[in-house]
Automatic annotation (TrEMBL), chain A:
Gene Ontology molecular function, alphabetical: transmembrane transporter activity
Record protein name field: Ribose import permease protein RbsC
Highest taxon above the source species: Bacteria
GO terms for cellular component: plasma membrane
Localization per Swiss-Prot or TrEMBL: Cell membrane
CDD domains given in the database record: TM_PBP1_transp_AraH_like (cd06579)
Transmembrane intervals: 34-52, 72-105, 112-135, 182-205, 231-249, 284-302
Gene: rbsC_3
Annotated source species: Candidatus Thermoflexus japonica
InterPro entries: ABC_transp_permease
Main location (coarse class): membrane
Membrane topology recorded in Swiss-Prot or TrEMBL: Multi-pass membrane protein
From TrEMBL, chain B:
CDD domains: TM_PBP1_transp_AraH_like (cd06579)
Localization, UniProt: Cell membrane
Membrane topology, as annotated: Multi-pass membrane protein
Record protein name field: Ribose import permease protein RbsC
Source species of the chain: Candidatus Thermoflexus japonica
Gene transcribed to yield this protein: rbsC_2
Length: 333, 326
């Protein structure tokens, strides 16, 4: 249930506390968060009982590595959802920027340049989303849905529907490389979550995002540059989508234009499982991380248990709904 | 000026559609012919049936992402019962509609009793229904359907295609429901603010549950029509249909935060979508580029619609979604 709006407004006078930090947790929220962690632990326990191959260091690292792409996208999605919006275009932006980077690097450009162009392109496309929302006043669902179609079409026509393959080793490092005992994608995900957490908890920008999500009219009335904030937020989401794309094509050593179809739904699911409200204004980035890990464990379980591919979606949809229902039941007590 | 603005706001969808038709008429002589216009109506009709159900959920303040998968599942089930189990056409159609209704009611139960956000509840159903379709069809299309069934999708009565007639009947029924019954009033009240509706004596849960049931039922009808028109049930049919249906509703003036939406608007929205598809084919634009243009036209149409409705740039109207009321 909503907290009264007076209390919400109070947060505006107290920078850095509007995001409930560890010290200011209400008991109820602490339980909810504990419940989320317990859900993840339960999933892991169940899988380690069902398959002896689950609880091995190699497999666990694999789970996190597979979850990292969704996790990175989900950070941007969390920021957008906190403002009360949504970003359906992430999967298509990932695909288009991925094929652009791939074509640059296979045509002999240095990998760093290819990567930088993809990231800049992704940010620009995200900012276009933000501009459509903030300046053209198109609802976020519709604006990003349009971008989703446009970017997918761009990816398909750019490649004529064919995958681009054969990247140099240094280009694949981001997706397939290792740093010490850890895969690079996992480190990147950790960095992204750290950056997102810092943004939300310790900067004015994060405070503004939550204020916008709580009440856009009030946020604008107290002088928050709402339009610029929205453009930047959607831009960040586009940036992170293209970063995830670079990791994905590095791992696959191939960039098909059909990359990332449906990724928006996985990212939204991770955010919502993590307890962020879809209407904005309230959320927890740590929850998004756990949500992404839960989905990752679920995917891993589907592979380990050899569930036939036709049943995959039934299983996944059912488990996610069941987990959320359980969460609701526990929460009401 | 006020009268002008009211006029523009009320008819913005129609104006967008007319602008589109004028542009296409100028670009190709093949657009403005009776047979092609009938074709546009035919292409839009199945989307319109599904979008009308979507509009109901959107008016209630929710959303139904499962319609595309429900279309596939009911189509496959209806076809499968006829081909594999030898059911009569009528029985199979009833079973298909029943399956759609059941899935819709499942959505409703998840939203009402499970207290899940509609987006997530119907997203789960979307995955489950698509998975069940793949399981049931084993990934292969089911074809060889009897004439009596395919008539629903390809037949004509008095020169009007069956899907268009059925769409008309559905639109009329829902229009009466929304505008001439207390239930319609209750639905708008729920979308406008659940707490207030509840305090005024509206049975909010029942209204919401029923809305998803109807959306599922109409998606089921859409699935049957589509299967009949394609002469076969394809397991991958209807992917992304939910997004097109939402687009049609929003183009027709429905607000994703609930409380607004109309049958006429959604029909116009579906016609806009159908016209764009038809126009791109007439202009012989390659399929990859079609997507790009579709997305752009879509954004521009909604942007133009907003502009006509509210005038240029009011300072304090920002389209961030309103907070939920529950």
């Amino acid at each position: 249930m909503d907290r009264p709006s007076a209390e919400r407004m109070k947060g505006l006078e107290q920078p850095a506390r509007i995001m409930p930090g560890l010290g200011a947790l209400e008991a109820r929220e602490r339980w909810t968060r504990l419940g989320l962690v317990l859900t993840l632990v339960m999933f892991c326990l169940a899988l380690s009982l069902l398959s002896p191959r689950f609880l091995t260091p190699g497999n666990l690292i694999n789970v996190v590595r597979q979850a990292s792409i969704n996790g990175i996208i989900a950070v941007g999605m969390t920021l957008v959802i906190l403002t009360g919006g949504i970003d359906l275009s992430v999967g298509s932006i990932l695909a288009f920027t991925g094929v652009v980077a791939a074509s640059l690097v296979t045509s002999g450009q240095p990998p760093a340049l290819a990567m930088a162009s993809a990231l800049i392109l992704g940010s620009l496309m995200g900012m276009l989303n933000g501009a459509a929302v903030a300046y053209l006043r198109i609802p976020p669902f519709i604006a990003t849905l349009g971008m989703m179609t446009v970017a997918r079409g761009l990816a398909l026509s750019y490649t004529q529907g064919r995958p681009i393959t054969g990247f140099p080793e240094s280009f694949r490092w981001l997706g397939a490389g290792w740093m010490g005992p850890l895969p690079v994608p996992v480190l990147v995900m950790a960095l992204v979550f750290g950056f997102g957490g810092f943004l939300l908890s310790y900067t004015i920008f994060g405070e503004h995002l939550l204020a916008i999500g709580n009440n856009p009219a009030a946020a604008q009335a107290v002088g928050i540059p709402l339009r610029r904030r929205l453009v930047l937020t959607y831009g960040l989401s586009g940036f992170l989508a293209s970063l995830a794309g670079l990791i994905l094509i590095g791992r696959l050593d191939s960039a098909p234009p059909t990359l990332g179809i449906g990724y928006e739904f996985d990212a939204i699911a991770a955010v919502v499982i993590g307890g962020t409200r879809l209407t904005g204004g309230e959320g927890w980035l740590g929850g998004t991380l756990i949500g992404a890990l839960i989905i990752g464990v679920l995917n891993n379980g589907i592979n380990l248990l050899n569930i036939p591919s036709f049943y995959e979606q039934v299983f996944k949809g059912g488990v996610i709904a069941a987990a959320l229902l359980l969460h609701r039941v526990l929460r009401r007590e | 000026m006020r009268g002008m603005r009211d006029f523009l706001g009320r008819w913005s969808g129609v104006l967008v559609l007319l602008a589109l038709w004028m542009a296409l008429t100028l670009m190709t002589p093949r657009f403005l012919t009776p047979s092609n216009l009938l074709n546009v109506a035919l292409q839009s009709s199945i989307l319109a049936v599904v979008a009308l159900g979507m509009t109901l959920t959107i008016i209630s303040g929710g959303i139904d992402l499962s319609v595309g998968s429900v279309v596939a599942l009911t189509g496959a089930l209806t076809a499968g019962l006829m081909i594999r189990n030898g059911w009569p056409v009528g029985g199979a159609i009833l079973a298909g509609l029943g399956a759609g209704l059941a899935l819709g009611l499942l959505n409703g139960a998840l939203v009402v009793y499970g207290r899940l956000v509609p987006f997530i509840a119907t997203l789960s159903t979307m995955a489950i229904a698509r998975g069940l379709t793949l399981v049931y069809t084993r990934g292969y299309p089911i074809s060889g359907l009897p004439e009596a069934f395919t008539f629903l999708g390809t037949g004509e009565v008095f020169g009007i295609p069956m899907p268009v007639l059925l769409m008309g009947a559905v639109a009329l029924g829902i229009s009466l429901l929304l505008n001439r019954t207390p239930w319609g009033l209750h639905l708008y009240a729920v979308g406008g603010g659940e707490d207030l509706a509840w305090l005024s004596g509206v049975r909010v849960n029942r209204v919401k549950g029923l809305v998803y049931g109807m959306s599922g039922l109409l998606a089921g009808l859409g699935g049957i029509l589509l299967t009949a028109r394609l002469w076969s049930a394809q397991p991958n049919v209807g992917v992304g249909l939910e997004l097109e249906a939402i687009a049609a509703s929003v183009l027709g003036g429905a607000s994703l935060s609930g409380g607004y939406g109309s049958v006429g608007g959604t029909l116009v929205g579906a016609l806009v979508m159908g016209t764009v598809g038809n126009g791109l084919n007439l202009l012989e634009i390659p399929s990859y580029h079609q997507q790009i243009i579709k997305g752009l036209v879509f954004i521009l149409a909604v942007g133009l619609d907003r502009l006509l409705k509210t005038g240029p740039w009011p300072a304090r109207s920002i389209p961030v979604r309103r907070r939920g009321t529950s």
